[in-house]
Amino acid sequence: MIRKVMAEVDVKLGIRQTLQKIEETYNKRLALSNAPKPLLIAVSKTKPVDLILDAYSVGQRDFGENYVQELVEKANDARILEHCQDIRWHFIGHLQSNKINKVINLPNLHMIQTVHSIKLAEGLNKAWEKVKAENAEKKQQLNVLVQINTSGEDEKNGVQPEDAVGLFRYVLDKCPNLNCEGVMTIGRFGHDYTTGPNPDFGTLMKCQQDICSTFERDPAELQVSMGMSDDFVQAIEAGSTIVRVGSSIFGARAKKPTDA
What we know:
It holds the Pfam family Ala_racemase_N. This protein is α/β, with parallel strands linked by helices.
């Protein structure tokens, strides 16, 4: 049954339809904002390499993974290394400090979107210093986003909104090996848009504005990662510059694998 469902997933069509929605929504937003066109992260967690290859074949380059072990396996997969040499991996799950080295040594790692604490920022900064010393091909800084818990849910990771400026400042001042490109949130699932805009999106945009005001940054240059398959259109309307879309492209997800 799973194989039949997988066979019916048209990843190429999913990519095209998602990009079309992004384009249409962005064009409508242009009148209100000078934020850059949103980047699509194809969230490939629990999905096989074959589907990643399909997405890559139609021009998709940015892929997101939530689980450390799954990212390790995919980033080192022989077919990915051979056929997807320009792939850019974004880690979008909870990263524990004891798993930092598993992630940052991976080929084509582009960004860690979930820096949720000073401890993790410090660990990434120290580890990347070592990576740079050992691998001349690694770029000067590791791209990261500050994760903010906009919904206040205990099971969600991220700093509280009032601490966003402080964590951004710490990365800026104390972590020379990290390039903090902006902010990210997961937010509460299942918001009813008939009741109005998503408050989590508004909270993240406020955090972005506070950071830009504090550090004299152009808001158009500070990334905002929010919005998934069921609400990326509304996220773009609210100001998102990075959307993380999985099931709309790859189909419904299988059961969460065991991380390691």
